[in-house]
Amino acid sequence: MSVLETQSVSIRFGGVFANTDVSIKVGEWEIVGVIGPNGAGKTTAFNIVTGFYKPDRGRVLYKGRDITNLAVHERTALGMGRTFQNVGLVKGSTVRENLVSAQYLEADYSTLAGMLGSPRTFVSEAELRKRGDAVAEVMGLGEFLDRQVAGLPYGVLKRVEIATVLATDPDVLLLDEPSSGMGPEEAHDLGDTLLELRREFGLSIAMIEHHVPLVVRVCDYVYCLNFGQLLAEGLPEEVRNHPQVVTAYLGEDAEDPALQKVEEKLETLLDTD
Amino acid sequence: MDRLRERQGQVITAAVITLLVLVLLATGEKESLVIGVITGSAYGFLALGLVLIYKSSGVFNFAQGEFGTVAVYTLYLLHFDVPYGFALLGALGVAVLMGVVVERLVVRPLFDAPRVTLLVATAGVALLSIAVQIWFGEATARPVGRALPTLDRFTVLGVQISDQRLLLLGALAILAGLLAWFFNKTNLGLAILGSSQEPTATELMGISVKRLSTIVWALAALLGGLAGVLAVPETGGFAPGVLTVAFLIPAFTAAVLGGMTSLPGAFLGGVIVGVVEAVATSAPIFEDIPGSPGTLLVFVVLLIVLVARPQGLLGKAG
Amino acid sequence: MAVETASRGPAAETGETVEGGEPSFRPSPIGWLARGIVWAAIAWLVLIFPLGREAFELQRYSEAVIFGIIGLSLNVLLGYVGQISLGHQAFVGIGAFTSAYIVTEQNLSFWVGVAAAVAVGGLQALVLGGVSLRITGLYFALVTLAYGLVAEKNIFQIQELTGGGLGQPAPKPKGFESDFRYYYLCLVFLAIVLWVDWRMMRTKSGRALLALRENPRVASTFGVNVRLLTLFAFVVSGAFAGLGGALLAHNDTRVSPETWSFNLALIFVIMTVVGGLRSRAGVVIGSAFFALIGYLLDKFTILQDGLNAIPGAPDLSPEIARLVIGPVLLLLTLTLTPGGIGQQIRPIVRWLTGHRFDLKDRGLKEVQISDVRA
Description:
heterotrimer, A: alpha/beta, Rossmann fold, 2 domains, 4-stranded antiparallel beta sheet, 10 strands, about 45% helix, C: mainly alpha, ABC transporter involved in vitamin B12 uptake, BtuC, two-stranded antiparallel sheet, 17 helices, 2 strands, about 0% strand
């Protein structure tokens, strides 16, 4: 059974078809890549999967359950973890504080108990911190724990973001361009990390990625989107050499400016929400 | 699609106005319709200032009402000593001066600050203005002289109306026409409207963005001053902060009805709000509401528009 | 843990450390002694100094303490949620009338009155917040301003609640009839509010609020129900405001409808912003200062004389002084030091809590009012 699945999902913004009949599957223990030119609708697909958009048509399934109408936070509770293209972190806080913040659902006390300061909450808080530190260690971020997020280099931020998502205790990770802002070497290390995460925690991963060597190395299966539609799918090597994919990446009309503009606008809208 | 939604707004507006007038004619005193239109026009002028400033500075100007209060206060102080016309000019001059000073001392230093910071700052300006009025004057209400000393009454279309109010309605209509001409035909007017979308286009016309910001604040202050000197003598006289207390929320509601962007929408919104208030005050069905039913009704209108139709009735569909 | 201690250095510059992490800096015995002396001085000022003061002075001190509670209430909205309320006088005022009504008209005890005021404050915030959840930023400020006006023109005109023009009597509770005891009672309530606020910000809901203010999308991927949490914060703010209102009512022993005007709403906002958003110490100091301006002018006539020396201006009565000084301080704060008093005293607060004294440690530059959501 697939962990995550979209069935013929379509969504339209104004007159722009951002996703049309997109069907993607992520199996257990699988690492799935989603590629495509800018403005192909990849992030839109992620936003539908994680619940930021409701599709006009189609369904989203999680472990066989229809979650199309669930809110973002409810999907997090089910075990869905997601990173953002432009880094989703609390920039005014330290890395450790972010890691503790991310464990919102892991805290085993009620909001009211926390406010009243019941002794139990002090114990729980210490546990959350310890767990956060452990996650940071896994991602090789121990040295940054007390640093404020706002001052860190982009490549580090991307890793911090993955760490915070891991702290939410997910079963499936959705990573939006995890290697952006990284050099080739860092990207290679990231690949190792992802493979290790799967091995250690049994995670399934879906990732939007431009860095082809990384995709080819870690992905079991790849989807290519173009103009909001699936152009090709298959093993990484197959997709990479697929004639239509090559044209899409090389061709002049590869990028849909209208769609790209819509996606960018929606992103800023969501950010300032 | 978009055009359809705009049309829809216009249809709703027309329906609302018709309904209001019918309710008034059927239930209330007919004279309250005149008061509604007059105070509503004042709300409209205040709302025009709010919209202009929102378009150019991106901020809700909570000091907008004080431009009017300061003008009324000046009118009150001057009208004992100088002819009414000069007192009026002096009052408007002081309002404009205040607009320019606020722009220079408060808005410009916070040019790059987040808009909410600027909003808090304008609210601070409003309080300062009220405080200074209490400090230098007294906290009590005073009647302000009217333009015409005599009081004759006419009957127009079955509605009794005093010469004061007839004159006022005429003045309001002329002013509204002048504003429409200014924003549609003159270079400066077009530049002001265009400045929010394309700063560079305005620069090409030889007006710097900063200079234009000063002009907009001066113009908004003038509109606020007009609202004050025209309506307050009719509605009870000067008291510290009178326009902030009694006019600001209705004016904002009017501006929101216009989607915070449309000038005709804001003005028409003002008239609608004015008539709604008049209905609330004179229609018997609202008798049981404690205190001032108008305030409550305007609040309800504001909430409904913001929740159900944030783009306003007459604004561009968004 | 070894890694943590080694990397402690940069944290001192970047903001408050997570509680429980051991700081590498330990004050020397002399350092502790110095801190102890300052703490003792503060305790003396708050606890001992008011002893034996006259009733009208004690009432002003109590008011300062209560304003601290109101400031903290507004700080939850402005500082934590990032929404501005220009109608907070309505929340406080309705709390005041609720408690006075319960005690005077229903003959129930003060404690029931306070509990009801807290509940009504929370409920009010829940309703207003629920209706206007989709309305944010500038528009929310507008809605709250209008709500304040509705409270003034409609709710406070209900005779049964407000007792009409003379206002509603609100006697002090049994056992706390003296202004002196009542002052301590207010202090206890302020301490409770400070504790709740502190624990809230150090546990999951507070962290979620901070994440939410900066980026609601990120908060929701952390599993936070954004709407529910925002409403929850509204309720907390409303409950604090209701408490402040009830205490204020019984401090003056009478509540009258005219007190709760637009001017007061702005004073509340100003004292919170000047105090410094998200700084508990700053907010309490700023609020107390604004409660005491009139009293201070009376006490130190040299200040009053200075103000009266402004040529051409009439004498500035203490009541008006607050309205004039407030906006001026607000505009200076916004343009010069957006972090307010909290930012200025941060080095002292850090030192008092056992950290190194570092004049440059002013917390984040871009914090405070500037990140209220628009």
